[in-house]
């Protein structure tokens, strides 16, 4: 039994999010057990975790989560309470990272907001960056002007992403339902 299984046994509301973390291949949640436990309170309906890891923002340990709608940072501090920062995927304008010997730093910008996350596990950074870029592309595809492309064209794009393994069947169904509304 791994650490995630123990957490979901103690809190049944957490179980679906633990499954999403496992499915996303999340392994490094160092120092963010309290934040993982907060996922049922911060996740939205139909929101799916595509990746998560831990890092430091302004000296505090945070859980970094990428979903099909947004990127967010969660810090459930002991003294100062919960800190929550989110970036809607369609609003991210800049993404940069640097790698060191064992750890890496990533910066995100959205308009006038900028967050620098330090000391992320070096092996997680390429996954994190790729998942963010893919999520941004998928999100922009959904919000594209319907006049420019037909619904059938959009469905075809998502089917191609599904066939390539870039999205799951569940993500495909969500995007399909959005388009067919």
TrEMBL record:
Pfam families attached here? Answer: bPH_3, SHOCT
Q: Where is the YokE-like PH domain?
A: 43-133
* Superkingdom in the source lineage: Bacteria
Q: Span of the secretion signal?
A: none
Please state every residue range assigned to the domain named SHOCT. Answer: 153-180
Q: Which InterPro entries match?
A: SHOCT (IPR018649), YokE-like_PH (IPR039519)
In Swiss-Prot or TrEMBL terms, this protein is called Prophage pi2 protein 02
The taxonomy runs:
Bacteria, Bacillati, Bacillota, Bacilli, Lactobacillales
The coding gene here is: pi202
